[in-house]
Amino acid sequence: MNDEMKPRRRKHGRRSPLASVALVLTGLLMTGGAYALFTAATPASASVDLTSTQTIQEGKKLFAANCATCHGLNLAGSDSGPSLIGVGAAAVDFQVGTGRMPLAKDAAQAPDKPPVFNDTQVKQLAGYVASISPGPGIPAASNLTLTGDATKGAELFRINCAMCHNVAGAGGALTEGKYAPNLMETSPSHIYEAMLTGPQNMPVFNDDNITPQEKQDIITALKTQSKSETVGGFALGSLGPVAEGLFIWIFGLGAVVAFTVWLTAKAN
Amino acid sequence: MTTTSDTYNFDPTAPADSRRSGGITGWASRYVDERTGISYVVREFGRKIFPDHWSFMLGEVALYSFVVILITGTFLTFFFQASMAEVTYDGSYGPLKGLEMSAAMQSTLHISFEIRGGLLIRQVHHWAALLFVASTMLHMLRIFFTGAFRKPRELNWVIGFVLWILAMAEGFTGYSLPDDLLSGNGLRIIAGMVEGIPFIGSWILWLLFGGEFPGTAIVGRLYTLHILLLPAAVLAFIALHLVFVVTHKHTQYAGPGRTNENVIGVPVLPVFAAKAGGFFFVVFGLLMLMGAFFTINPIWVYGPYDPSPVSAGTQPDWYIGFADGALRLMPGWLGGPGGVPMEFVLFNTTYSLNILIPIVVLGLFIVAVMLYPFLEAWVTGDKREHHIADRPRNMPSRTAIGAAGVAFYTVLFFGASSDLIATHFKVSIESMITILQFMLVLGPVLAFFVTKRICLALQKKDRQIVLHGTESGRIVRLPGGEYIEVHEPVDEYERWKLVAFNDYEPLMLRPNAAGRIPVTERARAAISRLFFEDRIEPVTSTELEVARHH
Questions:
Q1: Least buried of A62, B173, B304, B453, by fewest C-beta within 10 Å?
Q2: Region Disordered: what ranges (chain B) (predicted)?
Q3: What is the average pLDDT score of chain B?
Q4: pTM of whole model > 0.95?
């Protein structure tokens, strides 16, 4: 019986490093998979003429059906939504394009989610809102060429945005359950519109504050950064030392302990 | 030739070829041995016995990661410039081109982007540093929970404790060297903590930084500490630590034939040495893999240090996290915002209790870790040597205290990442902080009682098993019609583990020669009661005898 026990126990000792290797592999795959998801490009916006009557008519229908309950058909607002007078096409494109609107449920902050409307419908809504009360427009493609000065943009980002969004654009917590989101997946036009309209708890960075050229620099820097992060291998969510610490305890030390078990198990 | 003097081995009358036999290796080893007498050391050390248990190898992991740190660190010193002189970056990383930064940051970027293998070595160095502190602490936990710090090893516990502090200091000084935004923020926090000490704080800060924060001297000074003073101290303490390990011999778990007077295991030579050598390469290889595949501290993303921007989610490396957490969890007001402020001015001096209290609490925690062996020895009054490692359950109070300490430390650590927890689990940061504040107080208490109960329950189970064996699940019908379940007696080897442990009783107070009971003795008795009031006694041989005939 004792002889039977032995090989079984030995097998036990051997299994653990394999398990840890499998764990590390799963970790790798998951990180890689998540990374691939995050970097998947957002489709470029289709060209829709915002000022055409047809766009505005379609937009009005959509707005009446989906938004008017909260914002009112004449954009005057209601108890459940603010007035949209003067927010402009940029705000609508940002809010609906990132899925924040239509608002699903009351929370500390409207979260971004998969957009309800396709790109054309978003533009139609934007056209309708802009037709009633003009405001900041959707940035022209020439402002989103990603040919700005990344060095300058990164510096501007560190000075103006990092206190909320984290230097790496990984996002950060604000008070009372609000948060500045991760910016790595955000499309250039949405970044531009966010600066222009200052959604919710984000300040407005108008063109006097940060010029269109500087906005381009910032976008260029963000996009360059989300690509260059791979220099050192998997970025562990760009969460900095906390992610690194958890990694060393769970995977690093986990693997090491598995090896110690294996080394001592074989001697039995 | 007198009997006291050393004798020389050289024997001129021996035939020349006998000294030459054994080929080139034989010749080489004789050559060395005749000049150094090394064979004595090898023979003695090679016969040292090390018991085989995975938990006994954690200290080795710490040692090996330190060796990796030394090797990779040396490489880094070839290229790193510890200077805060302003330069304009002109390296190959596009998004920083043309930016003003310190030479330290520039040379770190140079190592990362231009030096062949530089980034790999940098990352391995940093991962190894994290593993060094992590394995050190896991090793400390093992020592703590098995009571391997008891006489004669108390001093070695203190040496190990100093190594832990040194490791954290090494880590922190190294983390600050690249002069990037993240580490600069960390340094700013430390500077603030130092400034928060009344009267002497500002003086110390000026001394450390050579003027106002950040100044132009700090990186150079940290570098000197990081590569000269601290590593030398770590090496010296490791040497001392190992000398003690060898002189004390290793502890072992209770088992058949294992007594307080012997050590059962494998000799250092050849098996243990081969395994340990191999294990070094396993650790090294693992760290290389981590350095190759996982980014750590991407300073090019953080950018150069500049006192104005502060990033959201700024955290120190994990081992400093508990200190950061203490600061974060300290309320700024007593009784919520608007209550009694924790920072006030009295006679032209600012008192920042919101900084001082965390410093004091952290100090007490650390000192408690260092002094625990002496405290326990004082409470038990046990002056015997102990070479058998305890099973944690057999010392419920110690295990419970350890669990409470772990809970305290863990809550502080999570305090440092409260913002990340808040965003990732979609709770507000305020409620996260409040929850953690409560947990910091309740967690250790809860951990203490739960752990103690679990230990006692496990001891009870052990007792059951020894006396009545394990339930076999086999039901037998007796001739009288009665059904019983057959209990299989535990085998002798297993039983050894279950019955061999120390049992302490609460201290009985007795008046001393003068007929009085001193206050210290009263305190000791009170703590002793706390420790040993609830206890499960080990099975005695009489009980065993009775149970067997039962």
A1: B453
A2: 1-21
A3: 88
A4: no
